[in-house]
Amino acid sequence: MTTTEMETRSFEADVARLLHMMVHSVYSDRDVFLRELISNAADACEKLRYEAIARPELLGDDPKPRIALFADAENRLLSIEDNGIGMDGEEMTEALGTIARSGTRAFMERLEAAKGGENAELVGQFGVGFYSAFMVAEKVEVISRPAGSDEAWRWSSDGKGSYSVGPAAIGDAPPRGTRVVLHLMEDAASCTEPHRLERLVKSHSGHVPVPVTLVEKPGAEPREIADGTALWVKPKSEIKPEEYTDFYRSVAGQYDEPATTIHFRAEGRQEYTVLAFIPGSRPFDLFDPDRSGHMKLYVRRVFITDDAELTPRYLRFVRGIVDSADLPLNISREMIQQNPLLAAIRKGVTSRVLNDLAKLADSDAEAYGRIWENFGAVIKEGLYEDFERREQLLKLVRFSSTTPGDKPRSLADYVNSMKEGQKAIYFMTGDDRARLESSPQLEGFKARGVEVLLLTDPIDAFWTANAPEFEGKPFKSVTQGGAELADIPLTDAEAKDTPQAPAEVEGFLAFVKETLGDDVSDVRASDRLTESAVCLVAPEDALDRQFERLLSAAGRLDTASKPILEVNPRHPRIAALAKLGEGEPEFRSDVAHMLYDEARVLDGDRPVDAKAFSQRLARLIERGLSLK
């Protein structure tokens, strides 16, 4: 930006929409703005500390980071000032005129859908940062001077669709860093009251690693209200639960309570401190395609980056910090991922998080159940991606199943309740539990009281395809290969296993196979059907049918396998059709294709040829009417 005058620009569309909602909505708690602005100021100070490692001249004669609040009740002004890295005009436009975070649209849709007091929770939960200032201010000014620069810049907006940005007089700017000036709304005048500001800072921002001072009125001496001691360096015995919660809310950008807190210091070959949290609710970007982690890396309390991938992607919901005593301070952000020390830290952090989850699952099943409900679908990604920890993860996973009740089942629960003669852990994948529960493929298992895991997350089709096992028991899809139910007795003592198909049924099945031709790989009598006439299964050496659907939809499968049509030889309709013999060839052909289409519909697919299906159905109806 080279102009010497203030330039007016329109906000990015998403920002304008967000600001409109925030300005014209009623919030039950608007105090989140101060936490967000102080957090931004602390980040600016931390960024300067990092840059000053290579360029110490940036600090000049003011090496200690600080944040100051200036209250002016008479003029209804509140300023938040830091001596951090600062911003130039282009950085202001990028940081304050656009929203770079993915998932913003999803946030705003939820914000619009929320009513009343829910809005305040959402604002904090989604961490809208700087824009929260417009909940209390009718106008916001930002004056900034970048570290090491002789120029200053000003940004100004009333939050109504546009902003102005341009050069500012050096005398109007802080010596270094950024000053945010809030022209408070009339109903927010109490935000200048010293006791309220002090209470808000101590309750919401007392953990920030930068001292915070308060100037109660113009001309008054600054008074320290937060000492800047990093919370994670304090002994756990000296930290109150509410301090952990406040730190979590700041580092996570959420406004809920953490589900669990993990705070430890590792000593030995590597020394580092970890303060991590598992959120009490789902972050809005949990399923962001980037799947990036949200752990901040410090080296000896100097902020390095929040992009160090300190946990695997399937633990991306974990929020917090890692402070290393061993990593070099001058390491570049680009090279940090290749550092072997960081790899060791990542391994240690991951193991500790999984161990703590396992302990929680053993000690408080209800609390762990809430975590699993929020993040189970993400944790299961590790079963596919992290072979080294698969056994550990299999002990953590919970599943819905055909067992009565809504309580999720562990694999240990499943194995302990396996039936006599059962050799595998049976599962079925799909996208809807109700449809899975009504699937004909389950009938033979239900008749024997065999529990089947009902897996409805997309990732389930992938990790089960890797043929894992648990405690020596392999996983087996009920829609793939043979059911292998012959060794498991029926629960009904009077029921009998499926006998060998009568000769006429065998002949009918051979006719159906010949008629369907290349549509199927085989037609055979089923031992998994007890009520339905037909179903489809995948061949033993082919992909599970749900996995195949997902790969086809993603364009990653050129040719789908041909399914097997299984027919219930004891079903009255099949027995009656088999007895018709070889008469009426057109009718028998229609029946063969209709049985295949029926199986496809039961499997959640459409008939192969909708027009041909309609014509066959019409002919069958006409034949039925003619027999009356």
TrEMBL record:
Region feature C, mapped onto this chain: 550-628
Subcellular location: Cytoplasm
Protein's UniProt name: Chaperone protein HtpG
Gene name in the database record: htpG
Positions of the UniProt region annotated as A: 1-333
Main location per the UniProt record: cytoplasm
Region (B): 334-549
Description of how the protein assembles with itself and partners: Homodimer.
Family listed: Belongs to the heat shock protein 90 family.
Cited function: Molecular chaperone. Has ATPase activity.
Residue ranges occupied by any Histidine kinase/HSP90-like ATPase domain in the UniProt entry: 29-188
Cited HAMAP family: HSP90
Keyword terms, alphabetized: ATP-binding, Chaperone, Cytoplasm, Nucleotide-binding, Stress response
Domain of life: Bacteria
Cross-referenced Gene3D superfamilies: 3.30.230.80, 3.40.50.11260, Heat shock protein 90, C-terminal domain (1.20.120.790), Histidine kinase-like ATPase, C-terminal domain (3.30.565.10)
NCBIfam families on file: PRK05218.1
Listed PANTHER family: HEAT SHOCK PROTEIN 90 FAMILY MEMBER
